[in-house]
Amino acid sequence: MNIWNFFRRILILIASAIALTVTSLWVGQQAYSWLPPQGAAESVLIDNLISFLVTLGAFIFLGVTGVVVYSLIFHRAAPDDTSDGPPIEGNLTLEIVWTVIPVMLVFWIAGYSYQIYQQMGVQGSDELMKLQVPGIESAYAATIEYPNQTVTDIDVTAKQWAWIFHYPERNVTSTELHLPANQHVRLALQSEDVIHGFYIPGFRLKQDIIPNTTIDFEFTPVREGKYRLTDSQYSGTYFATMEANVIVESPEEYHKWLKAAARTQLSPAKNQAALEYAQASESGFPNGWATVAPAQPPLVNYSGGKEDKK
User: Fold this and answer.
1) Long-range own/partner contacts, residues 136-142 (CB < 8 A, 24 or more apart)
2) CA spacing 20 to 30 A to 199: which of 47, 145, 214, 218?
3) Half-sphere exposure of residue 187, counting CA atoms within 13 Å on the CB side?
4) Which range (75-84, 98-107, 185-194, 209-218) has the least confidence?
């Protein structure tokens, strides 16, 4: 009878582990529905990482919660039992196990995350340092050739508080980022003043932009539509206005827009920060803190909005 009870408990433990694993995997798959549609080829890398973290977290949470609930239901003290619990001494083996497992999980998460960063080409502080030290070349900064794919080069300048995009192909400047779908894009990121953050949530892409440094950032947009670029780093009073539209369109529509913009004369771009600063200055009401005056609105061929393409 004791043997049958032993095997019954083993089977229950195995069934519980399988149910816990399946449920955790299902919860991890639901993480995709919490995020915007994947706008870039690299988005799947970040989504897989998030799904992995959610699955792992769900497994730990459901496992611990399940043990607690099971103990409360089947091992609770009787209503009239006021005796002390059993004097359990320390268990060295158990302590080693519950120390080693979390450490291994942390290394697993760190290794997987670093692998994703390598695949996406996100440049951290060590890579940025290599860009500034003579004789040391960053693998991410090296020019990558794509023999079977067209590469679109765009210069991106961030300043307080505006995004400026320059397209060398037609010498076009815009405050709205246009990208051809299913073509590799290489951005040259620069900052004119402070640290800014290039962040497109729909693409799962984020890269810090360091002053006096040109950072090559590469990705492939795959889903046509309109996205939003924001500054992920606090860059001053009006940093919340430092946003820009990102338009992903077919290569034909992209070149059509580029050709039309090249025929347009340069004019000052719309700039929300400059507008708000001017209104605050005219009001004469002191705000109590020093405010950096926004840079002059850039001269661009196209500033976005509801203008029709020619």
Assistant:
1) 140/216, 141/215, 141/216
2) 145
3) 26
4) 75-84
